[in-house]
TrEMBL record, chain A:
<dbReference type="GO" id="GO:0005886">
    <property type="term" value="C:plasma membrane"/>
</dbReference>
<keyword id="KW-1133">Transmembrane helix</keyword>
<dbReference type="GO" id="GO:0022857">
    <property type="term" value="F:transmembrane transporter activity"/>
</dbReference>
<keyword id="KW-0812">Transmembrane</keyword>
<feature type="transmembrane region" description="Helical">
    <location>
        <begin position="219"/>
        <end position="238"/>
    </location>
</feature>
<feature type="transmembrane region" description="Helical">
    <location>
        <begin position="29"/>
        <end position="46"/>
    </location>
</feature>
<feature type="transmembrane region" description="Helical">
    <location>
        <begin position="363"/>
        <end position="383"/>
    </location>
</feature>
TrEMBL record, chain B:
<feature type="compositionally biased region" description="Basic and acidic residues">
    <location>
        <begin position="384"/>
        <end position="393"/>
    </location>
</feature>
<keyword id="KW-1003">Cell membrane</keyword>
<keyword id="KW-0812">Transmembrane</keyword>
<feature type="transmembrane region" description="Helical">
    <location>
        <begin position="143"/>
        <end position="161"/>
    </location>
</feature>
<keyword id="KW-1133">Transmembrane helix</keyword>
<feature type="transmembrane region" description="Helical">
    <location>
        <begin position="12"/>
        <end position="33"/>
    </location>
</feature>
<dbReference type="GO" id="GO:0022857">
    <property type="term" value="F:transmembrane transporter activity"/>
</dbReference>
Automatic annotation (TrEMBL), chain C:
<dbReference type="InterPro" id="IPR050107">
    <property type="entry name" value="ABC_carbohydrate_import_ATPase"/>
</dbReference>
<dbReference type="InterPro" id="IPR003439">
    <property type="entry name" value="ABC_transporter-like_ATP-bd"/>
</dbReference>
<dbReference type="InterPro" id="IPR017871">
    <property type="entry name" value="ABC_transporter-like_CS"/>
</dbReference>
<feature type="domain" description="ABC transporter">
    <location>
        <begin position="273"/>
        <end position="517"/>
    </location>
</feature>
<keyword id="KW-0813">Transport</keyword>
<keyword id="KW-0547">Nucleotide-binding</keyword>
<keyword id="KW-1003">Cell membrane</keyword>
């Protein structure tokens, strides 16, 4: 096999690397997924922790990933247009309130609209502050987070206290109708072929079946929307003229302005979309419990921001970030013993890193990785169950570990976070 | 003339902000059918008896001290373009370990106090250093790592509290560490009230106020007057120019985070050493996040942060009396959020007005000195949370 | 054309054809500065019209007015004789005006195609029609010999290519009037020739070109008419065929056209800088500097010629300690400084004038006196012990402003408010003030007007005479040939030729730089 | 305070004077649908009976001004002052000492050791009620597999768990009980995280559990949702959650473990008004006082009433010692 076909503008790879790394992002993502499933299967078989790859784990991962992913998508739009959005948490909070308020009156469809509108309102404040007044993006975002908490409590006191349908200062009445959910016929419903397969405990096959069943059965309408929004966002941002203009505002607004792109208007639109998506994330949270409950966002807006950066400001990447977080979070809530099995996974990963670094001649890194691999292995072998305090941060630690192990080639939009004032640059 | 004008334009922005926040708050209070003037009265009504009045001052100051420290910690990192959302976790880890360590040793009073402070600063610095090391060696964005480390700190502190550092007996509703012995407690400042002839308040004014002042002055001098501070600010203004000038950007990330974390380590100490004497499940949380708002409101300058912290504390104090007046306490949160927004918007408006006026003057005179707008580098330094992803690699 | 604008005098161009562009009495004020005062400009259709003037004269400001980027405070704009109000660049584009900015207006992470079509994208069914865009860009590229690949990232392009992308952007929008703000500042002669070829092509097609340059020879070569601006106002027009560069310069600044000729050799025996086998790899692993060996002696100027992107920037970074080496050693005097930090190198007497002053040379948001400290944080007069000496730094900034003719209100002015030339003078002044043994000067006069250029050249010569070793990287071949004692040519990361500047024309040098002379073997 | 030495304010708190009751809530304040609401319901019931006025105050989000709430209520002449929630436990001793003329009560915290005779602890035997919940769950479980979802892993919630597990095992010694806490001690987020509650309960149902008991405050909403989706049952906590639930949820809320904060508070206020208050002691609300118990709305547990009654009696009689920690 001759490596004559040059792939990247900068690097040439060997044939093996080409097989794994070539062919664009989609193929790479597929390989990573396959590798991960393989690893998970191995760990499951060794540790006997069926929860690691069960259908329910994956469906939980999806459920937990949705609000985070939506918040991150919201961040994507605004940051691609150059507006840093620390206010995602606040917009998420507004979204939950809007969903609860509209939902108890007009049902689930109303909740979706209400949540989006409230999120958009948050976005509007952010846009006015950052775009029109040129306020520092972080300041505005932080202020919105504070404001949102206050407004939501205030509104609840105003609307729900003494409401005969229920609700109170910290929660809304229940939604008046439940959102529908879907399953793939035959495969994950009725005969449930995938489910049967998943229960067999076969190496890899059952694990993959678990994954597939997990993400195809009992999927809520909002989960469906969220999953669809990932490719839609990609198409909108990268394949349309609108997206190109929007992104140009985040890369070089002066250039965009000089070509007649209405920079301020684009930024406004982007931040409003951002608020709407974050608000939708709030709706997802409300759908889970069927009511609005104060504090229900639990910092997921920040996690969404982290997922956005994790995903290198790209829809696929942020989905992966949200998914990873959701998976670890689900596992943590479901099975404390399965968390211990993650130590084995970590040991294997670190071992791979050690081998890789040895090959590359970086012995210090190799030794370090090997040492930590050993530690993880010892941990796996000796620990039965971790205390709640430690288990509780499994998803956060996992995210951090993945980030520190993966090589970072993050590239934020070049003018992200910079206040653009016409004629001043 | 120019001095007057400068003062005028310096006060202009806060004035707009106050008006703006007042308008919003008035609307909010009207919306619930209460009288806004009541709210104003309550805000400034410190009580009937002299003791109540001094107590209100104590409450404000005691609240302002940790807020100030939190703002200071955040601002140091901001000054070099690092967004340290991790102050929350840093102070939590610092406080639990300082409480544990402080209760475990016995030392003579001043040494014991110093010991607790040093432990807290070291732990805070260590927790922040994780962020810095990950950024410098692995290129992990400090925003993500500090968010994650906040949660990790929460879990770890909980584990420490329920496990190795548990001091309260089994079954007690609140789990705490052991109490700091007398020698490890920070004496209050109530003597001051006698000195200036004010009534003794009910509570105790945190002696830690002094430490906070010292920290504020130290940071201020460090940033404005020293080479190190110059390097730090230069890195914040332009990482590439700083590197070319010989500043070791990676080293600066580490050093700045160490300082930021060390200051963050102090946040929990006023409460720990002056009031509760132990860390527990009910220990005040969330100061790290408030610190971000305070730092931004104070425009990352120690003096500004002091004012911002006092403002926040002043509003917080009103939360109780407002409820007596049947105005919900959430109004306070709304005022705080609105003020942060209003102040920054007002700053921008003031900036633009100053500019326009300068332009007007240029019409007649050929080349007057262009008066730089009030947003100095201090104001904009915080805005740069970008561009540093690659700084390490 | 149809109607004469009200009050228009009868002197509208030759044969009553209205001017393509006419600016009347344009005044533009910025806070504290009147950038343009009562400017007049008349450009005929189908001509190449040059605008010259010293730094900060107001050229860019005037062109931005014409491109709708800001509104003039006074005055009118006439296009083809019709009074026009330009509210935004979009209006200007619609009126057939395109502008290539002094600083490239390109999004680095976008492809060439995306940069070009932005704002007037072809779409099909709501989606960006890349195929059509690609086809049209190829067409333009071929027609005007721009040689562009639509699908590469702009980030990966050299300056020459970027410039052509900018031109393609304008042409893609069907502009009939092109504004080029200092297009040649960053190009080598071959590229300049290509550009002028392109301009000739445009002219033949009936397009009007307005172009700004500080290189007066160039201006005379390519322009059909010239407008000279001084301190924000028009001082006159000139005919390039009958006006000499000297006369032009005198119109601009009232000084003589400087010459970069070095008079006598001052090269001494002792080497100040020796590079041995210097090799630098890019983060991607590609060798961008390969096995470079080089010596700079005291009192010697070693010039490095090369088309941009051939490793000069990396070489400079490596010498300054800003980039890790993958091989080789750097000696300063007889000390091995390979493992030293940038700061240690600066303290040991290395001065540095970076190529990109905005990125590496200044803190734009900081006052001038703080910029004086930058890079000299450990030395007086900026510091006392661990503390900053504000008074000392201010006083010394005032000195530099005086001695180097930095035009700014005072040491407390923010650096961003200075024009590029003045920023550059401040940087040079700062680096000189610590009397370094070795000065790394990358494009020290880029974008600097003739007066300031002369001043900087004089400074470099004086410093050289006093024994400073200078490593000069420049794209200005006259400057390289005139100042250098030895010339090295850099191509694809290697030093491929050592030339004697005494007997070299810019054309020959250009040949070496592009590799045309590689085989000839006239390397010493 | 019947035999209060000085008669200043206790007289005003006596039967003739106007009652001024101060309530300091736990974070969340009024309208939390949980024990803040329960407490105020008790106060209001007492006021309906006796007349008087109520002042309610909520702490700020981080709870840093709790001290202020109590002292300002006392300063403003409110008496008695009721602190809702154990979070006040750290400070209330000092404040009671500082205001000897004001009668204080604190919910969920024992005050025996504080030695302030103007302070009453309103404590509950949550483990006993939870024991019955465990009995009910084990008796009704078909799969022999049940679950418990706790909010934050505090000693208080662990009491629920301990009683529940003991009760279940008393019926079926080999029963499987899944236990999950949503957040560790010191992190109150587990009480306001319905998503977490749902995920945790879902996991239990999918693993074969058919009844899940929650002591997770607002997160319980998620537990009920999980039960609705799985078609299984759940047990509520604190109040009779059947009464406030939506119809779908009513179908799955088998019973609720009642913790009658309202009764305890009402009794306290009435005792105070009538001068029957002892002070300085805890008032234990357990099965015998009906301070804890099981609700029977919906009639789902009517069939096992005998079993429940049997265990209740054994506990009251002291035949069964219910553990308070797991
Ligand atoms: N946006 C602005 N705000 C304030 N001052 C400005 C602005 N733009 C230009 N100026 C000032 O106007 C004057 C003219 O600047 P301009 O850029 O037009 O000069 P120039 O002739 O293009 O100079 P150069 O040859 O250096 O490019 C300078 O003093 C500059 O500082
Ligand atoms: N906010 C501002 N305040 C004051 N002056 C400004 C401001 N923004 C830009 N300028 C000045 O406006 C002029 C226009 O910028 P331009 O793009 O022509 O850069 P330049 O600095 O002249 O170019 P070069 O660095 O290549 O010589 C510059 O002189 C710049 O210093
Ligand atoms: Mg210019
Ligand atoms: Mg210039």
């Amino acid at each position: 096999m001759s490596a004559a076909t040059t792939t990247g503008p900068t690097r040439t790879r060997g044939p093996l690397a080409e097989l794994f790394l070539g062919g664009g992002a989609a193929r790479r993502a597929l390989w990573i997924l396959v590798g991960l499933m393989l690893l998970l299967s191995v760990v499951r078989v060794i540790s006997g922790e069926q929860a690691l790859t069960s259908a329910s784990t994956f469906s939980t991962a999806l459920l937990l990933a949705v609000p985070i992913g939506l918040a991150a998508l919201g961040g994507l739009f605004s940051e691609r247009a150059g507006v840093v959005n620390i206010g995602l948490e606040g917009m998420l909070i507004l979204g939950t309130w809007g969903a609860g308020w509209a939902g108890y009156q007009w049902g689930w469809a109303g909740a979706i609209v209400g949540g989006i509108l409230f999120g958009v309102a948050g976005g509007l404040v952010h846009a006015i502050a950052t775009v029109t007044f040129g306020v520092d993006h972080v300041v505005s975002g932080v202020a919105i987070n504070i404001l949102a908490a206050g407004i939501v409590r205030f509104l609840s006191e105003l609307v729900y206290v003494g409401n005969e349908l229920g609700g109170g200062a910290t929660q809304s009445p229940a939604l008046s109708s439940r959102p529908p959910s879907f399953s793939l016929p035959v495969l994950s419903d009725g005969p449930d072929l995938l489910g049967d397969l998943a229960d067999q405990g076969w190496f890899l096959i059952s694990d993959v079946a678990g994954l597939l069943r997990g993400v195809t059965s009992g999927v809520g309408v909002l989960t469906l929307i969220a999953v669809l929004l990932i490719p839609i966002s990609y198409v909108v941002l990268w394949r349309t003229a609108f997206g190109l203009r929007l992104r140009s505002c985040g890369e070089n607004p002066a250039a965009a302005d000089s070509l007649g792109v209405p920079v301020y208007r684009m930024k406004y639109i982007a931040v409003l979309i951002s608020g709407g998506l974050a608000g939708l994330g709030g709706v997802a949270l409300v759908f889970v419990a069927n009511i609005f409950k104060e504090g229900q966002t639990g910092g997921r807006g920040f996690i969404g921001l982290a997922a956005l950066i994790f995903g290198n400001w790209r829809p696929g990447g942020l989905a992966a970030g949200a998914g990873l977080f959701g998976f670890a979070d689900g596992l943590q809530l479901r099975s404390r013993t399965a968390v211990v099995a993650l130590l084995l996974l970590l040991a294997l990963l670190l071992l791979a890193v050690a081998v890789f670094q040895t090959v590359r001649g970086r012995y210090l890194q190799a030794v370090l990785a090997a040492a930590f691999a050993g530690l993880s292995l010892v941990g796996f072998l000796t620990i039965d169950e971790l205390p709640t305090g430690i288990v509780s941060f499994t998803p956060h630690l996992t995210t951090l570990l993945v980030l520190s192990l993966a090589s970072q080639r993050l590239r934020m939009p070049k003018a992200d976070g910079l206040v653009y004032r016409r004629g001043e640059n | 003339m120019t001095v007057l004008r400068r003062i005028g334009s310096a006060l202009f922005a806060p004035a707009i902000a106050v008006v703006f926040a007042a308008v919003i708050t008035t609307l909010v209070i009207l919306a619930i059918g209460e009288n806004p003037s009541t709210a104003v009265r309550v805000l400034f009504d410190f009580g009937d008896t002299p003791a109540q009045q001094t107590q209100a001052i104590v409450v404000i100051l005691n609240r302002a001290v940790p807020l100030f420290l939190a703002g200071l910690a955040v601002s140091v990192a901001f000054r070099m373009g690092l967004f340290n959302i991790g102050v929350e976790g840093q102070y939590r880890m610092a406080t639990v370990l300082a409480a544990g360590a402080g209760a475990a040793v016995s030392l003579p009073a001043p040494l014991h106090v110093v010991f607790v402070i040093v432990v807290a600063m070291l732990v805070g610095a260590f927790w922040a250093a994780i962020v810095a090391v990950l950024k410098v060696t692995r290129g992990v964005s400090e925003v993500i790592s500090s968010i994650m480390l906040n949660f990790i700190a929460l879990g770890t502190a909980s584990w420490l509290l329920t496990g190795p550092l548990r001091g309260s007996e089994e079954g007690a509703a609140i789990i705490t560490t052991k109490d700091l012995p007398e020698s490890g407690q920070f004496p209050g400042l109530n003597g001051l009230f006698d000195l200036v002839g004010l009534a003794q308040p009910r509570g105790e004014l945190y002696g830690f106020l002094v430490v906070a002042l010292v920290a504020g002055i130290a940071i201020s001098v460090l940033l404005k007057r020293t080479r190190f501070g110059f390097d730090l600010r230069a890195t914040g203004l332009s990482a590439s120019a700083a590197t070319a000038s010989g500043i070791d950007a990676r080293g600066m990330v580490l050093k700045t985070m160490l300082i930021s974390g060390a200051v963050a380590g102090l946040i929990g100490l006023p409460d720990l050493m002056g009031n509760t004497h132990h860390f527990g499940t009910e220990f005040t949380a969330g100061l790290g996040f408030l610190g971000i708002a305070v730092a931004l409101l104070g425009r990352n300058s120690p003096l500004g942060i002091a004012f911002a912290a006092l403002l926040f504390a002043f509003l917080d104090r009103a939360a109780v009396p407002l409820q007596f007046a049947d105005i919900p306490a959430s109004v306070v949160t709304i005022i705080q959020g609105t003020i942060v927004l209003a102040v920054v918007i007002a700053n921008e408006i003031a900036r633009q007005l100053t500019r326009r006026r300068a332009e007007g003057e240029t019409g007649q005179a050929a080349s007057p000195a262009p008066e730089s707008p009030p947003t100095g580098p201090a104001g904009t330094a915080g805005s740069r949370i970008d561009e540093h992803q690659g700084a390490g690699a | 054309m149809a109607e004469q604008p009200a009050g228009a005098p009868a002197d509208t161009g030759t044969g009553n054809v209205p001017y393509a562009v006419e600016l009347r009495g344009i005044t533009k004020r910025f806070p504290g500065v009147v950038a343009n005062r009562d400017i007049e400009l008349r450009v005929r259709r189908g001509e190449v019209h040059a605008i010259v003037g010293e730094n900060g004269a107001g050229k860019s400001t005037l062109m931005k007015t014409l491109y709708g980027m800001h509104r003039p405070d006074e005055g009118t704009i006439l296009l083809d004789g019709r009074e026009t109000t330009l509210r935004s660049p979009a209006d200007a584009i619609a009126a057939g005006i395109g502008m290539v900015h002094q600083h490239f207006m390109l999004a680095d992470y976008f492809t060439v195609l995306e940069n070009i079509v932005l704002g007037s994208e072809p779409t099909r069914g709501g989606r960006l029609d890349r195929a059509t865009a690609r086809r049209r860009i190829r067409e333009i590229s071929e027609r005007y010999a721009l040689n562009l690949d639509p699908d590469v990232l702009v980030e990966d392009l050299g300056v020459g290519d970027r410039q052509r992308v900018e031109i393609a952007k304008v042409l893609y929008r069907g502009a009939t009037t092109l504004i080029l703000d200092e297009p040649t500042a960053v190009l080598v002669p071959q590229e300049v020739d290509e550009l002028f070829g392109n301009l000739a092509e445009l002219k033949r097609e009936g397009l009007t070109v307005i172009f700004i340059s500080h290189k007066l020879d160039e201006v005379r070569k390519v322009a059909d008419s010239i407008t000279v601006i001084r301190r924000g106002t028009t001082v006159g027009t000139a005919d390039p065929r009958t006006t000499t560069s000297r006369q032009l310069a005198e119109m601009m600044v009232g000084s003589e056209l400087p010459s970069p000729q070095t008079r006598t050799s001052t090269v001494r025996e002792t080497p100040v800088l020796q590079l041995r086998g210097l090799t630098v790899a890019s983060p991607g692993g590609r060798l961008v500097v390969q096995d470079v060996g080089l010596t700079v002696h005291e009192g010697e100027v070693v010039g490095i010629a090369g088309v941009e992107g051939n490793g000069q920037a990396e070489l400079v970074d490596a010498i300054m300690g800003l980039r890790p080496l993958s091989g080789g050693t750097v000696l300063l005097g007889d000390q091995d400084i390979t493992a030293w930090s940038t700061r240690a190198r600066r303290e040991a007497g290395v001065g540095f004038v970076p190529a990109d002053r905005h990125r590496q040379g200044m803190l734009l948001e900081a006052p001038l006196w703080e910029n004086r400290i930058l890079g000299h944080q450990t030395r007086p007069p900026a510091v006392k012990g661990p503390f900053i000496d504000r008074a000392g730094a201010r006083a010394d900034t005032a000195r530099i402003m005086r001695e180097y003719d930095v035009r700014a209100p005072g040491p407390d002015t923010l650096a961003v408010a200075l024009s590029g030339g003045n920023q550059q003078k401040l940087i040079v002044g700062r680096e000189m003030s610590s009397s370094p043994r070795l000065l790394i000067a990358a494009h020290p006069t880029r974008g600097v007007d003739v007066g300031a250029q002369a001043a900087i050249w004089e400074l470099l010569k004086d410093a050289r005479a006093e024994g400073m070793g200078i490593l000069l990287i420049s794209a200005d071949l006259d400057e390289l040939i005139g100042l250098s004692d030895t010339l090295q040519v850099m191509l694809r990361g290697r030093l491929v030729a050592t030339l004697d500047p005494g007997s070299l024309t810019p054309e020959q040098l250009g040949g070496h730089m592009t590799g045309a002379h590689d085989a000839a073997g006239d390397a010493a | 305070a019947s035999d209060e030495d000085d008669n200043g304010s206790s007289a005003s708190g006596g039967s003739d004077g106007e009652l001024k009751i101060g309530v300091a809530y736990d974070t969340g304040g009024r309208g939390d649908k949980s024990f803040n609401d329960s407490a105020i319901a008790g106060v209001e019931a007492a006021v309906d009976e006796l007349g008087g006025e109520i002042e309610e105050l909520s702490p700020n989000d981080d709870g840093s001004n709790r001290e202020e709430l109590l002292t300002q209520l006392a300063d403003a002449g409110y008496n008695p002052v009721i602190a809702v929630g154990f979070a006040y436990g750290d400070i209330i001793g000092d404040i009671a000492a500082e205001y000897p003329d004001t009668e204080f009560a604190i919910v969920d915290t024992s005050v025996e050791e504080l030695g302030a005779d103007n302070l009453t602890g309103l404590v509950f035997a949550e483990e006993e009620g939870s024991f019955l919940a465990g009995v009910a769950a084990a008796s009704k479980s078909v799969t022999g597999h049940i679950g418990f979802v706790g909010g934050s892993q505090s000693p208080l919630i662990e009491k629920f768990e301990a009683g529940y597990v003991a009760g279940a095992q008393a019926v079926k010694p080999d029963i499987i009980v899944d236990v999950t806490y949503l957040s560790p001690a010191g992190d109150p987020s587990g009480f306001g995280d319905p998503e977490g509650g749902k995920v945790a309960a879902q996991g239990m149902y999918q693993a074969g559990a058919d009844i899940v008991f929650h002591a997770a405050g607002g997160s319980g909403e998620g537990v009920f949702e999980a039960a609705v989706e799985a078609g299984q049952r759940a047990i509520g906590v604190d109040s009779d959650q059947y009464l406030t639930a939506s119809p779908d949820q009513q179908a799955v809320i088998m019973t609720s473990m009642l913790k009658r904060v309202d009764n305890a508070v009402e009794t306290f206020v009435t005792d105070f008004a009538e001068g029957d208050l002892e002070g300085g002691t805890d008032i234990l609300n357990d099965l015998s006082t009906e301070g804890v118990g099981l609700s029977d709305s919906g009639g789902y547990i009517d069939d096992i009433n005998d079993v429940l009654e049997d265990f209740r009696q054994q506990i009251i009689d002291g035949d069964i010692e219910v553990p308070t920690s797991p």
